[in-house]
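cache lookup: miss for this entity combination. No prior model stored, computing from scratch. Input as submitted by user K.M.:
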Amino acid sequence: MELSSGLIVVKIGGAAGIDLEPLCDDVAAFVGEGRLLVLVHGGSHETDVIAERLGKPPRHVTSVSGHQSRYTDRETLEIFAMVVAGRINKSLVERLQRRGVRALGLSGVDGRLLEGKRKSSLKIVEDGKVKVLRDEWSGIVERVNVPLFRMLLDQGYVPVVAPLAISSAGEMVNVDGDRAAAAIAAALGADILVLLTNVPGLLRAFPDESTLIPRIPRAEIEGYSPYAQGRMKRKLLGVQEALNGGVRRAILADGRADSPIRQALAGRGTVVE
Amino acid sequence: MELSSGLIVVKIGGAAGIDLEPLCDDVAAFVGEGRLLVLVHGGSHETDVIAERLGKPPRHVTSVSGHQSRYTDRETLEIFAMVVAGRINKSLVERLQRRGVRALGLSGVDGRLLEGKRKSSLKIVEDGKVKVLRDEWSGIVERVNVPLFRMLLDQGYVPVVAPLAISSAGEMVNVDGDRAAAAIAAALGADILVLLTNVPGLLRAFPDESTLIPRIPRAEIEGYSPYAQGRMKRKLLGVQEALNGGVRRAILADGRADSPIRQALAGRGTVVE
């Protein structure tokens, strides 16, 4: 099921401070060179902004495993879907179309592009106590619709994927964009996974950018997890999942750079292989 | 470029009062019988609700040609895109997936599914005077990406289309869902176009539902336009455009019915052929 080699999966950050214009220039340049690309995006920051404006402020929690999460009740899921699949996805597609890129936006629910199990409750730590939150609508990608991706790539489309998935029962769920990108990269047999963020890569002493860790040998990745702060924990998990799934190289790189994808591929950032 | 015959294009209303559950049951039953379907939806009502909640109340205007329109400045366009491509589209796709339908949601910007010219200003009549509104982001569908539709239908997907289009310059624009459905039906060589709304069809004396006009011979459609009130004017225009484009039959029918598509195909509503 390998696609023609050279496929790159790029996750664009959902955090504040990422300028989409240079990123879209970069995508257009790559596509112009005949490279195969799949883009995955986030949307956490904009979802928070819109949710706040709609009178449904976000509730950020820390799971018992230490990951930062968003508590996604049904109303939050619907706002999340609206923002990621409507606002961010179409804004990216429009920018890419302006540059002549045959961008095609989908979310994981469309054609069951991304299937996953729904996690209907969340175990969190709050004020030092373990609590259980019900009515949770998140999940983890377990299966990727490879034929659908292949069909689109074969026809010259650049898939732009919003981080939603669908359960076997047909429930829409919110998924982590980094790990979704990792699952897609592994399933499609991608060469490279690039996770763009708003720091230069994994930092030994966050937030000091001069402490960037430039290389991590694949076998030693576990030893670096103590350096991962906040959302970086999940990115590192994504890197690990992609490499375990057969992806040759994963790069944590700076989405704020001028040519973020090109610089990542040139080795700027934290390269794991 | 004709698809296998029997294709039905159904436009689902964007007005209040439409229950999506029976509609989705109906879609699932049709797809289960092996019928080919394309769904197009609106979103005017929900866009108004969300825009209001976001502090950007909608501005409804009457064009010089007498059609009711939404003034779509850039901010309104972005809210419209968010609501139609994110909220309504994914909600429909999720409901259909729950019923085992291989629904795949797209907007007209995705893969240039629907191309159209941007109308960047709007001539309206207000207080009896003609005014020009700039910064308008709407358009009319001029070209349909038939190979993309065909590829999806061939693979057993049911396309669910949000009413956006893309200009040749790559600008996203808001389009009328009824006329978009008509353009799609004509381009794909559909047999039948069903426009569901929140009335039983074209009424001789709106809103008296007992005055339903059951049949209109194609050649006489112009003579019936005086009966069309409000949004019905544009639906009748869509019917005309579809028939001129080669669609055999167009039906204006009640989206509030129990089996709205089945009842429409059985001849309930206003049938034009």
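stored under new cache key. The longest strand of chain B covers residues 138-144.
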